[in-house]
Specification:
358 residues, alpha/beta, Rossmann fold, six-stranded mixed beta sheet, four-stranded antiparallel beta sheet
């Protein structure tokens, strides 16, 4: 039984909740880090677009996009593109399969820290996790990039352990949910994609990421990436064509240098990132790495945000509101329109489904 004072406090809270409208509700949902839901009418889709030169497209208009929700063309009400502070989790694979690629891991992490504008104005923050036989937090969220640059080289060292990549992804999302200060978040995985020591499997991790509402990008070293003391050095200067995969020494500890877990790596990373609206990038050469990682950072910081109120149509494709029995799941398709104006443009990274409270 509530006292008179308790009833009065309850009424005040109820009135404030009603008066504050839907924006705080949306913020509360973001803080709770539930899957993308449409408990309010407005649905917002983050989209990354690359132009015909491979750079992030920066001058698109609302009329350049066409958006379908469950097969029905929607009216895009708002298009926003602003520099937004991001909370980045860097998930660095330090396991035995990455021992000779630690310089790659260090350089990739440092490239992400390179600010696109004055540090005081960006308000980006970074947390660093390391993967061995278990995932562990190396650096909690911080905005001090100078301190990070000094500490990363000391912390990102080989563990010579098994790989718990999937467990690391769970820890990364948990870190974002509990500690991230910014509404826009992203995880960047630096790994070969192998896993041989996680409690979770690929399917469980993929399903978890599909509902986590955190875009995930992965950076891999290609077979011709120049790493110290791994591949035989050629005296010939490299031409425009990529060199063939070098012959590795046989026997000894290097005989199974690419183990069964690592052979599944590209598939693992592709399957995990695509459901989040992210993707996998491969650096074939040392000079490619800073450009690739900075492009990822720029794409996350300067995403297009397309907002619309869903319209449900009568055609058969428009009624797909479930997937394998999961009610309330809606499918999104975003296109550049008209196509002839955007030849060689690409839009590979956006989340293609959301859940509503229907």
């Amino acid at each position: 039984m509530m006292t008179a004072r308790q009833r009065a406090v309850f009424c005040i809270i109820l009135c404030l909740s009603v008066c504050m409208g839907s924006a705080p509700l949306a913020q509360a949902q973001t803080k709770a880090h539930s899957p993308i839901t449409a408990k309010v009418d407005l649905v917002t889709v983050p989209v990354i677009v690359f132009d015909d030169k491979g750079a992030v497209a920066t001058k698109l208009k609302k009329s350049d996009f066409r958006l379908l929700d469950d097969g029905v063309v929607q009216q895009i009400l708002f298009l926003d593109k602003v520099r937004t502070p991001v909370s980045f989790v860097i998930l660095a694979d330090l396991s035995s399969s990455m021992t000779r690629k630690i310089p790659f891991v260090q350089k990739a992490a440092l490239s992400l820290l390179d600010p696109l504008g004055p540090q005081d104005d960006s308000h980006d923050e970074y947390s660093v996790l390391g993967i061995g036989k278990r995932a562990r937090r190396l650096i909690s969220f911080t905005r001090d990039q100078q301190d990070l640059e000094q500490r990363l080289r000391l912390l990102l060292t080989a563990t010579n352990e098994s790989t718990a990549l999937f467990d690391g992804i769970y820890l990364g999302v948990t870190t974002i949910r509990q500690d991230a200060a910014n509404q826009r978040r992203a995880m960047v995985i630096i790994s070969d994609g192998g896993d041989n020591h996680s409690l979770f499997n690929l399917r469980e991790t993929r399903n978890f990421l599909e509902e986590a509402d955190v875009p995930v990008f992965a950076v891999m070293a290609g077979p011709s990436f120049e790493l110290p003391d791994i591949f035989p050095r050629s005296e010939k200067k490299r031409t425009g064509t990529k060199p063939p995969f070098p012959t590795l020494p046989m026997g000894g500890s290097d005989a199974d240098y690419i183990g069964p877990a690592e052979r599944h790596g590209p598939h693992n990373l592709s399957a995990l990132t695509e459901v989040t609206g992210g993707g996998v990038f491969t650096a074939a050469h040392d000079e490619d790495l800073p450009r690739i990682v900075r492009t990822i950072g720029q794409a996350v910081r300067y995403q297009y945000l397309l907002s619309y109120v869903p319209i449900r149509g009568e055609n058969p494709h428009a009624k797909r509101i479930s997937n394998e029995g999961e009610d309330g799941r809606h499918h999104i398709e975003v296109q550049l329109y008209p196509k002839d104006n955007f030849k060689r443009y690409s839009m590979p990274y956006y989340k293609r489904a959301y859940y509503s409270a229907e």
